[in-house]
Amino acid sequence: MSVITSVHNLRFAYPGHEPVLRRVNFNVLPGQILVICGLSGQGKSTILRLLIGLEKPDAGVVRLMGRDISFLTAQEFNELKKSVGFVFQNPALISTKTIFENVALPLIYHNIGDEEEVRYRVDNALEMLLIKEFQHQYPSSVSLGILKRAAVARAMIMRPKLILMDEPTAGLDRISRSVLLALIGNIRRINHVTMVIVTHDLLAARELGGEIGVLKEGELLEPMAFEQLKNCQDSFVEFLFRQLEEEASMLGERAA
Amino acid sequence: MTRILNWIGLHYRRSYVGQLMELGFQASLCAVHKEGNRKQSLDHLISQIYFTGVEAIPLVAFLALVIGTATIMQAATVMPKIGASDYFGNVMVLVVIREVGPLFTAFLVAGRTGSALSTYLGNMKVQQEIDALRTMGIDPVRYLVYPSFAAMIIAMFCLTIIFNLVAIFGGYLVVKLLTLMLSDFADVQLSLSLFLERILASMGVMDGVFGIIKPVFFGILVSIIACYHGINVSNDIREVPKATTNGVVNSFVCITLFDTLFALPFLVKIGWL
Fold first, then answer.
1. A127 in Cβ contact with A163 (< 8 Å)
2. Residues A220-227: contacts with CB within 8 Å, 24+ apart?
3. Smallest Cβ distance to A106: which of B123, B129, B136?
4. Are A2 and A66 spatial neighbours (Cβ–Cβ below 8 Å)?
5. Residue of A76, A77, A94 to mutate when probing chain B, most B C-beta within 10 A
6. What is the span of the domain harbouring residue A141?
7. C-alpha of A164 from chain center
8. How many CB atoms lie within 10 A of CB B60?
9. Are A196 and A48 in contact (CB under 8 A)?
10. How many helices and strands (H and E) does chain A possess?
11. A92–B132: do the CB atoms touch at under 8 Å?
12. ipTM
């Protein structure tokens, strides 16, 4: 089975800082969900930025759809990006465009379909994410939950093979978080899209299913299912689970 | 030797001027490369021309009227006293068309549109909107810089022509009006047709050429400097006002510097250099 994306011996440091990623390796197969977990500031989002070419690795190889991105021309890479969707932690919608225009933007820019087809596809995406009623509103006038869903709609509008998501549930209340996770699950089931999701929220990682890779001191531990991870003997993973239990008990207290 | 040239080239490319030139080159290439959606590009171009050009007309016209009136008034007062009334047209061409018109229009566009552009792009950078465009395979230079770049050139050219026309016609009419209202006011002593005839007779080929080149060049300068400072903001909202200020100040300095350089051929022509 062909690999959708893979990284091999990835190393990266921000200028003037210690390497945040030392030796990261993983393969993502078609239809798979890889959830990358870890503490804040450990380089989780940087992995996604490296995958989409927003940062250049100091060493190592990043492959998208089997192609080493370091050998692609800007034009070839832009072409390849049509099959990859990206959701930022901060939704990063264009503030001067409505929700509809934001979602339609990649289709219009890449000349995909006529006006009618663009409307049909955007309407479908907005309906799927339950935000059609907000289509004429500007990003500044809707809640973060709606913005995150609009960002997901924009990422899936090109019918990509791979969607990269950076902390999709960060900053959301419990209800918005549950709705978004359910919608992401729907998208995966309906579109059979491969996903790499970065989160510090282990609970969300369990709900999303798939395999969880823990980022520890610049290296990604072998991805495994949630239950396997729970039984893992690694001290860092145990620490993460303790944090999760504390968080869960805090939520329980609040609910009580 | 090759290594030295490489080293010079690399340092030049990393320098401020090198990066401005690279951005200008990339924006110029967008005019010939058929990437992206043409209709969308045209829509952006038209809205930028509207903002940069059409919305600035009242301000440019007002400034032109004031400067035109002051120039004609001063010339009408001083020139007859030194017996230089015949050179009235030369003064108008020299002061308004060759120097003040392009210069003041460029200052105005840099202050108004340049600052708005730097702030807009800076905010987009901080909000990761520019990164979002990149992830969608959308070239930010083509999508954001090129429409502003092309619109600024077109708008600067048109605004400079409007400035010159309003300064000359408007200034003349205001002075005539003031002469009618105030009896001891210095009159132009020329009919409108003779006034225009003198101006046209004083205009050389170089004035026409520089009348086109200067606004176009200033338009390129202002747009590239504004866009460069906007898209190079680090991901910190406090950097946006700094980028805007730097963009406007650097535009003013560059405009003044290049205006002086544009004057060199005339100084050579009259034998001063």
1. no
2. A220/A24, A220/A25, A220/A26, A220/A36, A220/A47, A223/A26, A223/A34, A226/A202
3. B136
4. yes
5. A94
6. 5-255
7. 3
8. 24
9. yes
10. 9, 10
11. yes
12. 0.91
Number of domains in chain A: 1
Query: Residue A93 sits in a domain of what CATH number?
Result: 3.40.50.300
Are A111 and B128 a contacting pair at CB < 8 A? no
- B137–A94 CB contact, under 8 Å: no
CA B198, B201, B206, B210 torsion-angle sign: positive
Instruction: Annotate A176-240 with DSSP letters as a single string.
Output: HHHHHHHHHHHHHHHH--EEEEEES-HHHHHHH-SEEEEEETTEEPPPB-HHHHHT---HHHHHH
Amino acid at B151: A
Residue A197 pairs with which residues in a beta bridge? A35, A165
For A54, the 3-state DSSP assignment is coil
Residue of A nearest to B38 (CA): A109
- The answer, yes or no, to whether residue A132 has pLDDT greater than 90, is yes
User: Tens digits of per-residue pLDDT, A88-107?
Assistant: 999 999 999 999 999 999 99
Q: What is the DSSP letter of B55?
A: G
Q: Whose structure tokens read 């959830």?
A: A35
Dist. CA A233–CA B153, nearest whole Å: 65
DSSP type of residue A87: E
Given CB atoms, is A240 within the 8 Å cutoff of chain B?
Answer: no
Structure tokens at B145: 């810089």
Residue type at position B186? A
Asked if B139 and B35 touch (Cβ cutoff 8 Å), the reply is yes
- As a whole number of angstroms, the distance between CA B118 and CA B233 comes to 9
From first to last of its 273 residues, what are the pLDDT tens digits of chain B?
778 878 877 777 778 999 999 999 999 998 888 777 888 888 999 999 999 999 999 999 999 999 999 998 888 888 878 877 778 888 888 888 888 999 999 999 999 999 999 999 999 999 999 999 999 999 999 999 999 999 999 999 999 999 999 999 999 898 888 888 876 666 667 788 888 888 888 888 888 888 889 999 999 999 999 999 999 998 889 999 999 999 999 999 999 999 999 888 777 777 776
d(CA B151, CA B134): 23
Q: How far is CA B147 from the centre of its chain?
A: 16
Cβ contacts of residue B198 below 8 Å, gap of 6+? B88, B89, B92, B190
CA-angle at A218, arms to A215 and A220, nearest 5°: 40
Which residue is closest to A106 within chain B, CA to CA? B136
Select from A203, A99, A208 the least CA-distant residue to A146: A99
SS3 letters for A148-177?
A: HHHHHHHHHCCCCCEEEEECCCCCCCHHHH
Q: Which residues are A162's β-sheet partners?
A: A84, A194
d(CA A126, CA A135): 8
